[in-house]
Amino acid sequence: MEEKKSVKPHSIAWRDRKAGSVTGVRDVLSFDENSIVLETEQGMLTVKGRNLHIGKLMLDQGEVEMEGNVDSLVYSGSNPAKRGSLMKRMFR
């Protein structure tokens, strides 16, 4: 029997380039005051800026709140939520 992973909705809300929140977060891969790298339901998300801080981290709910001076938000990689498992793709 295949185990189903629950896919959380993914969204980004940002206020005045100073504070924001991201939902649909699977993991925080790295962070420092200049960048935060998140694994989301839609791929890797890199937040770049200055004086970045994670204010609230609720991975069980898939939510992260951040603050600081944001310069960019960049996705990389594919959308893992739409790809499916390796076994499922191999045996189509």
Number of domains: 1
Shape: globular
Strand order of the main beta sheet, please?
Answer: 1-2-6-5-4-3
Range of helix content = under 10%
State the separation between the terminal residues, measured CA to CA. Answer: 16 Å
CATH topology: Immunoglobulin-like
Share of β-strand residues = over 45%
Largest sheet: 6 strands, antiparallel
Spell out the helices and strands N to C.
EEEEEEHH
**Class in CATH?**
Mainly Beta
Radius of gyration (Å): 15 Å
**Treating each run of at least 4 consecutive H or I residues as one helix, how many helices?**
2
**CATH-level-2 architecture:** Sandwich
Count every beta strand, where a strand is a DSSP E run of 2 or more residues.
Answer: 6
Outline the structure in words:
This protein is mostly beta strands and 92 residues long. The chain has a single domain (11-90), classed as Immunoglobulin-like, CATH 2.60.40. The protein contains 2 helices and 6 strands, in the order ββββββαα. The chain has helices at 80-83, 86-90; strands spanning 11-15, 19-23, 25-31, 35-40, 43-58, 63-76. A 6-stranded antiparallel beta sheet has the order 1-2-6-5-4-3, with no helix packed on it. It starts with 10 loop residues before the first strand and ends with a helix. The mean pLDDT is 85.
Quick description:
With 92 residues, the chain is mostly beta strands.
Give the helix/strand layout.
Elements: E1 11-15, E2 19-23, E3 25-31, E4 35-40, E5 43-58, E6 63-76, H1 80-83, H2 86-90
Antiparallel strand pairs: 1-2, 2-6, 3-4, 4-5, 5-6
